[in-house]
């Protein structure tokens, strides 16, 4: 197994950090390798705003629903959909930018942000750091817009922690996935395999959590219901519109 496959096969979210610093050289390398990721039409419509400031980390932790591990990480990175920078290019040739007013624009931004998040995390992990993606930034989007001074045509979509993992966190068991045949389909989607797989996963997940002392919430089905019977964030439409975005077909 080569080193890349080994690293990806052992990937996990880590929420326990030692408090050791990240060197400036490592941080720069992590950010620069994230910037190397592909972007739709080479638009480069993602920017990063990051902070190492302890007071800001504490504030971010609170804004993300009091997630303790954010307070204890070394760097918090926000992935921002950024059509502001591109609008300057269009302005300079007398063109009006409309992409942020379309569903396509939001989807492009979301896909590109996800790709960059993954690149950044892989890069950080290859240097011995650990990360967790933070979608909970969308619990308080307006506060993040203020905190990071985000102009119109930008949107704070998702974040990531970076820190040095504790030994215990590094060695924690990997969270199981749905059976492979219910995930990867050759030639066409198979709903029978999807259904069988998700039922099987309910058992796999229960056993995993019971075995690892996490049986306070053992059911995947119930966990999903707690998130997916409603939208668990708020003000998403309102905050996108506030930033100059709309989610509609442009033609
Ligand atoms: C877009 C996205 C947002 C996430 N948001 C959070 C978050 O706010 N807090 C958190 O602790 N984990 C968050 N996670 C991590 C997931 O909970 C985690 O990936 C999942 O439980 C699987 O565990 P694993 O990454 O250890 O395999 C997020 C993951 C993704 C991809």
Your description of this structure?
Pfam families: Nitroreductase. Residues 9-162 form the Nitroreductase domain. One of its GO terms (molecular function) is oxidoreductase activity. InterPro entries: Flavin_OxRdtase_Frp, Nitroreductase, Nitroreductase-like. This is NADPH-dependent oxidoreductase. The protein has 251 residues and is of the alpha+beta class. The protein has one domain: NADH Oxidase. 46% of the residues lie in helices and 12% in strands. It has helices spanning 3-9, 24-35, 54-63, 68-71, 84-92, 103-126, 141-147, 167-171, 191-211, 220-228, 236-242; strands at 46-51, 75-82, 130-134, 154-163. Strands 1-2-4-3 form a four-stranded antiparallel sheet, sandwiched between helices. Helix 2 runs antiparallel to helix 6. The longest helix has 24 residues, at 103-126. The chain is globular and about 60 Å long. The mean pLDDT is 96. Bound molecules: flavin mononucleotide (FMN). Flavin mononucleotide (FMN) binds at residues 12-13, 15, 64, 67, 132-136, 158, 175.
Name the features.
four-stranded antiparallel sheet, 251 residues, Flavin_OxRdtase_Frp, 4 strands, alpha+beta, Nitroreductase-like, oxidoreductase activity, NADH Oxidase, binds flavin mononucleotide
Q: Rounded to an integer, what's the Rg over CA atoms?
A: 20 Å
Mean pLDDT: 96
CATH topology group = NADH Oxidase
Count the E strands.
Answer: 4
Order of helices and strands: HHEHHEHHEHEHHHH
Shape call: globular
Q: What characterizes the major β-sheet?
A: 4 strands, antiparallel
**What's the domain count?**
1
Identify the CATH architecture. Answer: 3-Layer(aba) Sandwich
Q: Low-confidence spans: pLDDT under 50, at least 5 residues?
A: none
Which small compounds were modeled alongside the protein? Answer: flavin mononucleotide
- What is the strand content? 5-15%
Number of helices: 11
Secondary-structure-based class equals alpha+beta
Helix share, percent: 40-55%
In CATH, the homologous superfamily goes by the name NADH Oxidase
Describe the strand arrangement of the main beta sheet, using strand numbers. Answer: 1-2-4-3
Termini separation: 48 Å
CATH class type: Alpha Beta
